[in-house]
Design a protein that fits this description.
Blueprint: E1 2-6, H1 15-27, E2 32-37, E3 50-54, H2 65-71, H3 76-85, E4 91-94, H4 98-109, E5 119-120, E6 123-124, E7 132-135, H5 145-163, E8 169-174, H6 184-195, E9 200-206, E10 217-219, H7 222-247, H8 251-270, E11 278-282, E12 288-291, H9 297-312, H10 315-331
Parallel strand pairs: 1-2, 1-4, 2-3, 4-12, 7-10, 8-9, 8-10
Antiparallel strand pairs: 5-11, 6-7, 11-12
Subunit structure: Homodimer. Probably interacts with PlsY.
Family: Belongs to the PlsX family.
Enzyme class: transferase
Length: 332
């Protein structure tokens, strides 16, 4: 197996990426890791299953995605997606420009047959500690009901194969749990999901219940999903920042913090996105994973673990097979 990493993607690149690659290479000696970057000196020495792929360009976080992908064809993001297409790498991981990664994935890696639009699908931490796949969170701000049906099918296969969930429950993000709630998109998507026999659809899910883990796969359009993602991240940060302020306010607060520290640490770990690695771009014809922009070495390392499972368990082939079957049934 060969897994490629974008050396320049993310707030803590290249240091976090190179450290993650070194750790991953040591953990999985049967896998070759390829670091794609502009400076070969970034490659850790003395590790036999590491390779370097030199590029001359870099897509920045503030670059306009489509223009950058078309103009910077020798950038790490474009080259990584091309390597997956050409089978020079089995998977590609980047913490860089999300829009550029999506554009490069579409232009160079291509889509699975039967997928209209790929979806960005991170795992949300939940209070149960299990985690919930949410798609789409921003790849496609506008969607049609059929897209949401495809998201549900792809998400179900992914969590079953990669996360190990049995008969994953699928929910639809909406403003109420009652049947008939929401926009025309939500109503039509509900009707499609209710009829879909390949998934276990449990109905509408309200945003206030998301962190309780009411389902295993939560389906939504990219506009709503991105708002949900950023609001959840913002609320979590605000809570932890506020707790830190309160527990350092005076001596009695510091003593209370010392007593509660083990439990607070466990809670923080349960809500830590780095445990899940990154967000796959489900629907592309090869495994491409978007790591969080603020990923540290631990997050990138877990993205490598995620990529290995993605490849080993044949998620792409399973999705293609399922969608092909559905297309054949529809055409009869």
């Amino acid at each position: 197996m060969r897994i490629a990493f974008d050396a320049h993607g993310g707030d803590h690149a290249p240091d976090a990426v190179t450290e993650a690659v070194r750790l991953a290479a040591s953990e999985w000696p049967d896998t070759t890791f390829i670091l794609i970057g502009r400076d070969e000196s970034l490659l850790p020495e003395g590790v036999p299953n590491l390779e370097f792929r030199r590029v001359s360009e870099q897509i920045e976080a503030d670059d306009e995605p489509v223009k950058a992908v078309r103009r910077k064809k020798d950038s790490s993001i474009v080259v990584g997606c091309q390597m997956v297409k050409k089978r020079e790498a089995d998977a590609f991981i980047s913490g860089g420009n999300t829009g550029a990664l999506m554009a490069a994935g579409l232009f160079y890696t291509g889509r699975i047959k039967g997928v209209d639009r790929p979806a960005l699908a991170p795992v949300f931490p939940t209070l149960s500690g299990k985690g919930m796949l949410v798609l789409d969170v921003g790849a496609n701000p506008e969607a049609r009901p059929e897209h949401l049906r495809q998201y549900a099918c792809m998400g179900s296969i992914y969590v079953e194969k990669v996360l190990g969930y049995t008969k994953p429950r699928v929910g639809l993000l909406n403003i109420g749990t009652e049947v008939g709630k929401g926009t025309e998109l939500a109503k039509e998507a509900f009707a499609l999901l209710e009829k879909e026999k390949s998934i276990h659809f449990i109905g509408n899910i309200e945003a206030r219940d998301v962190l309780s883990g009411p389902c295993d796969v939560l389906v939504c359009d990219g506009f709503s999903g991105n708002i949900l993602l950023k609001n959840t991240e913002g609320v979590a940060k605000a809570i932890f920042d506020r707790l830190k302020q309160e527990f350092t306010r005076n001596l009695s607060a510091k003593l209370a913090a010392a007593i509660l520290k083990p439990r607070l640490k466990r809670f923080k770990e349960e809500m830590d996105y780095t445990e899940h690695g990154g967000a796959p771009l489900l629907g592309l014809a090869g495994p491409v994973i978007k790591a969080h922009g603020s990923s540290d070495a631990k997050a990138f390392f877990n993205a490598a673990r995620q990529a290995r499972l993605f490849v080993e368990r044949g998620v792409i082939a399973e999705i293609e097979h399922e969608l092909t079957q559905q297309e054949e049934l529809t055409s009869k």
